[in-house]
Amino acid sequence: MSTEDVRQYRSARSLGGLPLIHVALGGRGAHGRYRLGRARGVIAIGDISVGVVAVGGVAGGPVAIGALAVGLLAVGAVAVGLLAVGGVAVGVLAIGAVAVGVAVIGALSLGGTQAGVFVLGRHTLATESDGKAPAAPAPETRR
């Protein structure tokens, strides 16, 4: 396949051997197949992107934003990172509908310290789905 299938922009300036900005957007070639745009740069934008700031379908880097994002700060449908925010978030600090980590906030959360509706962990702040606090167990009586 030719590179004409992918629309690209690379800045003339570079930092550490990487273009300052690289945008690579995929497209369909003459054969009708879709070719993914792979961007690599300080700021990378593409179907698959890797950079200091990465934005794309699959994004990786210190700051990653995408459907699948992996980075120190990750934001996406599925986010994995030190600070992860997404539908499904996995990280030291994870915020999402489903959150897994050390400190988590989510409707369904699993971790050390957490807040949510359905939680499983050591230190929790939770409510039941009906919004009422759980009832205290009845005290035991001896005969």
Fold and architecture overview:
With 143 residues, this protein is an all-beta fold. It has a domain at 1-50. Helices cover 0% and strands 73% of the residues. The protein has a four-stranded mixed β-sheet, with no helix packed on it. The radius of gyration is 22 Å and the shape is elongated. The termini are far apart. The chain crosses the membrane at residues 41-59, 65-85, 92-112. Keywords: Membrane, Transmembrane, Transmembrane helix.
Per-chain topology:
Elements: E1 7-10, E2 14-15, E3 18-19, E4 21-25, E5 27-28, E6 34-35, E7 38-60, E8 63-126
Parallel strand pairs: 4-7, 7-8
Antiparallel strand pairs: 1-4, 2-3, 5-6
Q: Name the poorly predicted regions.
A: 128-133
For the record, give the distance between the C-alpha atoms at the N and C termini, rounded to a whole number. 84 Å
Helix-strand pattern, N to C? EEEEEEEE
The average pLDDT value, as a whole number, equals 84
Helicity range of the residues? under 10%
**Could you say which overall geometry the principal axes of the C-alpha atoms support?**
elongated
Number of strands: 8
- Rg is 22 Å
- Sheet with most strands: 4 strands, mixed
**Category from helices, strands and their pairing:** mainly beta
How much of the polypeptide forms β-strand, as a percent range?
Answer: over 45%
Number of helices: 0
> If strands are numbered along the chain, what order do they take across the biggest sheet?
1-4-7-8
Keywords: Membrane, Transmembrane, Transmembrane helix
Transmembrane segments: 41-59, 65-85, 92-112
